[in-house]
């Protein structure tokens, strides 16, 4: 039934838009959250980053759960969880329950991504998977616009409970269409390894704690690191030779798989650090109002979405490398021409070109890299491959800015807060990610019969 297939595709694409709720949506909600809880200002970054911690901790367990539940049930369960967890943050909570809630939001997001990519692969087929990923980028941009408009309308009128409006607008259609049209889960389902999931959360939690403590308590970080490595060894031993391992080490030796994974780790760190490093120079621009900075970032998101759609539709193997090379060039231009003093007018053309290159390059890299990784894994291991990607991307997102912000002080302590030096370092990290970007795309896939049609599996 073609109509049902179209409804299923719309359900998945709108579901991907829900992922903006615990990130950008929480940023809109933060003033009310901070006021209700009377939290210190220093806790704002901790509350925001807790979602990324949950994404990392839940990546591999949720990938295994998505395989156990099946893509349909996993996707709907994640949507339902986020629909309840996001508005709960509007309630007056103590700090510890709020951090636990943010961790749960990250874990639910990991389940949504793993199950959603499996559904995209089934609905679009191998030859058109890139088109599905590109449409997902466009859907996320549209969801961001809906979130900004609805939150801007509801939050000033209803306070923190106004977050219900964008939540229902984004999650409601996807839940309804998903229940109506998503394909049934008829494939064999592996057992869920509960002990492996506990060991996964334990060892990654310890390793993350060690990484964060390294900058402030080195001795304590070393102790926690040793405990984490012992937990990691125990987990690897427990996972060894299992028929459906929660730790999918069997995917790493596959041709074309490890390189996109490494590029995801380095690339996400560089892109996240770049987003942070761009704020000071944009705020310092003469003639650019404070409210216009958000419009600049929205324009970057639009460029990335358009480039991502192009990359997915093309499926060319070299696009991730070209994209990250463009992003590195754009960041280098922004670093060399800082918008300060009277040079701002002369710097505008180079700044505009730098932002343009960065936005387009980001979209080409993100979608092209995901496509390469998923195509390098067999269809039955799609959720496991997605879990590894979420893990690598989450680690890069969390640790990239954490360590790149420390590096300028090693060169010159007086320039520790120099945005130009920071942008230069992110450009270097982006260049490393470009060198790591190798495609796992099999050229025969693009030439497969029916490459211009959607999958013909029954829905």
From TrEMBL:
- Keyword Cell wall biogenesis/degradation in the entry? The reply is no
Report keywords, A-Z.
Membrane, Transmembrane, Transmembrane helix, Transport
Q: How does it sit in the membrane?
A: Multi-pass membrane protein
Lineage, top-rank taxon, reads Bacteria
A GO cellular component term found in this entry reads: membrane
Task: Kindly indicate whether the keyword Transmembrane belongs to this entry.
Answer: yes
- Just give the chief location class: membrane
Record-annotated membrane-spanning stretches = 7-33, 45-67, 74-93, 99-120, 132-155, 161-182, 194-213, 219-237, 257-274, 294-312, 319-338, 350-374, 386-407, 419-436
- Annotated localization: Membrane
InterPro entries documented for this protein:
MFS, MFS_trans_sf
Task: Give GO terms: molecular function aspect only.
Answer: transmembrane transporter activity
Q: Which SUPFAM superfamilies match?
A: MFS general substrate transporter (SSF103473)
What's the protein here called?
Answer: Putative efflux protein
Look up and give the organism this protein is from: Methylorubrum populi
């Amino acid at each position: 039934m073609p109509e049902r297939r179209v409804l299923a595709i719309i359900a998945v694409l709108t579901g991907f838009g829900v992922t903006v709720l615990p990130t950008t949506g929480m940023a809109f909600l933060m003033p009310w959250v901070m006021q209700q809880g009377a939290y210190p200002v220093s806790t704002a970054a901790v509350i925001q980053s807790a979602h990324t911690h949950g994404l990392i901790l839940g990546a591999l367990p949720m990938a295994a759960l998505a395989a156990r539940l099946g893509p349909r049930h996993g996707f709907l369960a994640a949507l339902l969880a986020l629909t309840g967890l996001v508005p709960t943050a509007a309630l007056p909570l103590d700090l510890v329950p709020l951090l636990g809630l943010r961790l749960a939001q990250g874990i639910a997001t990991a389940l949504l991504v793993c199950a959603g990519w499996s559904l995209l692969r089934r609905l679009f087929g191998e030859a058109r998977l890139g088109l599905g990923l590109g449409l997902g980028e466009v859907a996320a941009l549209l969801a961001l616009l809906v979130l900004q408009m609805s939150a801007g309308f509801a939050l000033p009128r209803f306070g923190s409970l106004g977050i219900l409006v964008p939540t229902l607008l984004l999650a409601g259609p996807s839940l309804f269409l998903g229940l109506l049209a998503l394909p049934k889960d008829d494939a064999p389902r592996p057992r869920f390894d509960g002990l492996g999931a506990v060991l996964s959360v334990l060892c990654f939690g310890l390793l993350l704690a060690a990484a964060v403590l390294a900058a402030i308590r080195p001795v304590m970080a070393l102790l926690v690191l040793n405990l984490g490595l012992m937990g990691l060894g125990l987990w690897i031993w427990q996972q060894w030779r299992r028929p459906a391992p929660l730790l999918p080490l069997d995917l790493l030796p596959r041709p074309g798989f490890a390189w996109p994974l490494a590029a995801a780790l380095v690339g996400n760190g560089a892109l996240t650090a770049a987003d942070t490093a761009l704020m000071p120079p944009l705020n310092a621009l003469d003639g650019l109002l404070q409210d216009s900075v958000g419009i600049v970032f929205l324009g970057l998101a639009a460029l990335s979405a358009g480039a991502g759609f192009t990359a997915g539709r093309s499926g060319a193997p070299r696009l991730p490398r070209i994209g990250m090379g463009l992003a590195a060039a754009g960041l280098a231009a922004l670093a060399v021409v800082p918008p300060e003093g009277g040079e701002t007018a002369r710097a505008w053309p180079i700044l505009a070109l730098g932002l343009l290159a960065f936005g387009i390059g980001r979209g080409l890299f993100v979608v092209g890299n995901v496509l390469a990784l998923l195509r390098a894994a067999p269809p039955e291991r799609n959720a496991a491959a997605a879990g590894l990607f979420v893990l690598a991307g989450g680690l890069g997102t969390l640790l990239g800015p954490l360590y790149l912000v420390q590096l300028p002080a090693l060169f010159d302590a007086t320039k520790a807060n120099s945005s130009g030096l920071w942008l230069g370092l992110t450009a270097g990290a982006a260049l490393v990610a470009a060198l790591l970007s190798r495609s796992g795309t099999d050229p025969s896939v693009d030439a497969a019969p029916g490459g211009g049609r959607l999958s013909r599996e029954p829905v």
